Every structure is written in C-alpha cells, then in structure tokens.
Amino acid sequence: MNNTYPDMNNGIMLPTNELDAPVMTKQIGRTTYEVSYHFSATSAETMNDKIRRLIKRDMNS
User: Fold this and answer.
1) I want to staple 13 with a disulfide (CB 3.0 to 4.6 A). Which of 23, 36, 48, 54 is the partner?
2) Cα-flanking dihedrals φ and ψ of residue 55, to 5°?
3) Mapped to the 3 state alphabet, what secondary structure does the chain carry?
4) In angstroms, rounded to a whole number, what is the distance separating the alpha carbons of residues 3 and 14?
C-alpha cells in the first residue's frame, strides 16, 4: 500500500511516515513518469554540491 498524499502545488508525493520514500510524478504529454527518491542521513554532501560535482564531471568528459 502506498502511504503518500499528493502535494498539489508541485506534483510531489509526500510521505505519511518516515519509512516511505517520496515519489515525484511528472506528466509529459500522455505519459506520466513516477520517480521515487531518498537521501542519505549520513551524507556530508548537499544536493547543490552533488549537482555541481556532476556538472563539472560531465564538462570534463
């Protein structure tokens, strides 16, 4: 059973408890994409740091 409820402002499915991973849904045309994601509680890298690192790595490839 999926224990999430939709956040109508941005399409993100918010968890009703900590065991559920958030799910982002995006509809493009007649196709709906659903992506679940999680974040490490022990990570020292912020999301901004990670995105910058990935962009720099992609530019050097």
Assistant:
1) 23
2) -65, -45
3) CCCEEECCCCCEEEECCCCCCCEEEEEECCEEEEEECCCCCCCCCCHHHHHHHHHHHHHCC
4) 9
**pLDDT value at position 43?**
82
Please state, in angstroms and rounded to a whole number, the distance separating the CA atoms of residues 41 and 7.
23
C-alpha to C-alpha distance for 12 and 33, rounded to whole angstroms: 12
Note the pLDDT tens digit of each residue in 41-57.
788 888 889 999 999 99
pLDDT in tens, 9-49: 555 555 555 556 778 899 999 999 988 877 777 888 888 89
